[in-house]
Amino acid sequence: MLDDKKVMMSGMQSTGMITLGNYLGALKNWVDLNDDENLKCFYGIMDLHSITVRQDPAELRKSARNLLMLYIAAGLDPEKNCIFFQSHVSAHPELSWILNCFTYMGEMSRMTQFKDKSAKHADNINTGLFTYPVLMAADILLYQADYVPVGKDQMQHLEITRDIANRFNNIYGDVFTIPEAYVGKAGAKIMSLQEPTKKMSKSDENPNASIFLLDDKDTIMRKFKKAVTDSDGFIAYSDDKPGIKNLIDIYRAVTGKTVDEALKEFDGMGYGKLKEVVGETVANELAPLQARFKELSADKAYIDGVMKNNAAQASYYANKTLRKVKKKVGFIELPR
Ligand code: TRP
Questions:
Q1: Which of 52, 72, 243, 330 could disulfide-pair with 229, CB 3.0 to 4.6 Å?
Q2: pLDDT at res. 57
Q3: If you take atom 13 of ligand 1, which residue's CA is the nearest one?
């Protein structure tokens, strides 16, 4: 779509407060691509996806706005990247409807996230939750994305996106670019501080399990102090020691150091000291982001402007694809 550039598309749901895991696993890597001249990047704040689970409207508004400010505070430049709210670009639900008609019940029922979420929200297994991956396919295909940086848990959704796109292309010709998983610098997979064999999650019920991006230094230090380790008493990087491994992974993801470099620094340290060092490192990494977030929170006009410009830009590209799709399936274009 953009001649010489490759297109990248990603996003996060706008529910709750994002964690250190979201930051080190995704956001920080997106920021590193700011200056890649060969890429055009679209990042969505996926508020349409958020309502597949019941949300309080005021909370949803707040977390969506916060997410935009966190993206920017983390260094994602809204001049170089298109950062938009999914609900501001009506092409998303429109294409999603069309793609629904090219997606099978059987495919959707196999999605592991649907199975997990419907078990978790047994009182509200709505059809939006069921067709969630189709909306995600629309998100990706509207921008003719070449790459989608996704974690393991979203890989199945990317696969289905490719299947739907191929199916559509087989009928109507080359309409969609077939997206691939982005395998640049792999984002770190950060685990829960309380159950280090489980991914760190923003919806974890144990508040000590996750570091949230706006946690203050005392909170960060306290959570690391309470982090679950083991009773061996020595530092090593091994799957048999998931708690220690996670602390080292966090340290590596923040500092960019290798496992060997980290192990050398931690040589002879006790667990208490290790937790303190990692906690300090994280607090220092997040401090400037938090300061910037505070500034942005006070600048409503700037954030509103970013919202407007980026929604217009996203709509421009998305509608280009949507028009083509509508024509292909046989809808009559509104005469001008
Ligand atoms: N489903 C993704 C998640 O929960 C969020 C998402 C929605 C997304 N649409 C997307 C990610 C498009 C990448 C591309 O993490």
A1: 243
A2: 97
A3: 10
CATH topology of domain 6-182+300-329: Rossmann fold (3.40.50)
Among this protein's residues, is 120 annotated catalytic? Answer: no
Q: Each residue of 252-278: pLDDT tens digit? A: 999 999 999 999 999 999 999 999 999
Q: Which of 80, 202, 217, 225 is labelled catalytic? A: 202
pTM beyond 0.70: the answer is yes
Query: What was the pLDDT predicted at 184?
Result: 66
Strands 82-85 and 147-148, by their bridges, are unpaired
Going by CA atoms, what residue is nearest to atom 7 of ligand 1? 136
Which residues have any ligand 1 atom within 6 Å of their CB?
9-13, 44, 46, 49, 136, 139-140, 148, 150, 154
- Closest-CA residue, ligand 1 atom 2, reads 12
Give the pLDDT confidence of 74-88 residue by residue, as tens digits.
999 999 999 999 999
